C-alpha cells in the first residue's frame, strides 16, 4: 500500500508492517521518513538494529543468514537495507524477492532506495516490493507549493502570505534549509502570527548565528545577543 510522506508517521505509529519500502527522491524528507520508521520500531519493541548498505560485491548471503536466524536473547530487530544505486543486481533481486515473501515475526524490514531511473521503476522486483510493502516516495516540493509546505510546518505559528513567499525565495527549494529556518522562527516567535518584517529580520539574524547560538541565547534570556 502506498502512503504519502504526510501519512507515514501516523500509520507507522499504529503498526510497523513486516516490510516497508522508502524511495527517497528528496533527501530531507527521506531522512524524516527514516527517523519516523526507526522511532516507531523502537516504540514497538524492535530494539535491536541491523543496517546494510549495498555496494559492489555485496555479500547478500549475510542478509539471508541474519533474516533466517533468531536472536540469541530473543530480542526483536529492525533491519535496514540501503540501496543507493537502486540496482541490486541478479543476486540482490533474488534475495529481495525472497525477503518480501518470507516475513519474520521478530523482524521488521526497511528497504531504502534513492532516486530511481525509468528502467528501475519498471523492474519486476520493484513492482513486487511495492505490492507486498507499505511504501512511500519523497518527492521535491515544487516552488509554487513551497509556501503552503512552509505554512503546514509552521503549525500554530502562522505567517502572512508575503512572509511565506519571502522565506520560499530565500531557501530556494532546499527543504533542509527551509526546515531549519522554520525551527528558528518558532524559537524567536513561538506565538505568531509572523509578519514579513519579522521573517526578514530573522533571516538576517540567522546569517550571523547558528541554531545552537540562538537556542542558548533564548534559554538564557540574552536578548542583546539576538
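^ C-alpha cells above, recovered residues below v
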Amino acid at each position: 500500500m502506498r502512503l504519502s510522506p504526510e501519512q507515514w508517521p501516523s500509520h507507522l505509529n499504529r503498526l510497523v508492517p513486516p516490510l516497508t519500502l522508502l524511495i527517497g527522491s528528496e533527501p530531507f524528507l527521506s531522512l524524516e521518513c527514516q527517523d519516523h520508521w526507526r522511532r516507531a520500531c523502537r516504540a514497538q519493541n524492535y530494539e535491536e538494529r541491523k543496517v546494510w548498505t549495498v555496494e559492489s560485491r555485496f555479500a547478500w548471503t549475510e542478509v539471508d543468514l541474519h533474516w533466517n536466524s533468531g536472536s540469541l536473547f530473543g530480542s526483536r530487530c529492525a533491519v535496514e537495507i540501503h540501496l543507493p544505486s537502486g540496482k541490486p543486481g541478479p543476486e540482490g533481486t533474488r534475495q529481495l524477492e525472497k525477503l518480501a515473501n518470507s516475513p519474520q515475526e521478530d523482524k521488521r524490514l526497511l528497504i531504502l532506495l534513492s532516486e530511481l531511473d525509468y528502467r528501475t521503476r519498471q523492474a519486476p522486483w520493484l513492482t513486487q516490493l511495492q505490492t507486498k510493502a507499505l511504501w512511500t516516495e519523497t518527492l521535491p516540493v515544487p516552488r509554487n507549493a513551497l509556501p503552503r509546505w512552509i505554512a503546514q510546518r509552521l503549525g500554530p505559528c502562522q505567517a502572512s502570505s508575503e512572509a511565506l513567499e519571502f522565506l520560499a525565495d530565500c531557501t530556494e527549494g532546499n527543504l533542509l534549509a527551509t526546515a531549519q529556518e522554520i525551527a528558528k522562527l518558532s524559537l524567536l516567535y513561538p506565538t505568531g502570527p509572523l509578519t514579513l518584517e519579522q521573517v526578514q529580520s530573522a533571516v538576517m539574524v540567522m546569517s550571523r548565528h547558528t541554531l545552537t547560538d540562538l537556542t542558548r541565547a533564548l534559554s538564557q534570556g540574552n536578548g542583546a545577543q539576538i
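The longest strand covers residues 107-114.
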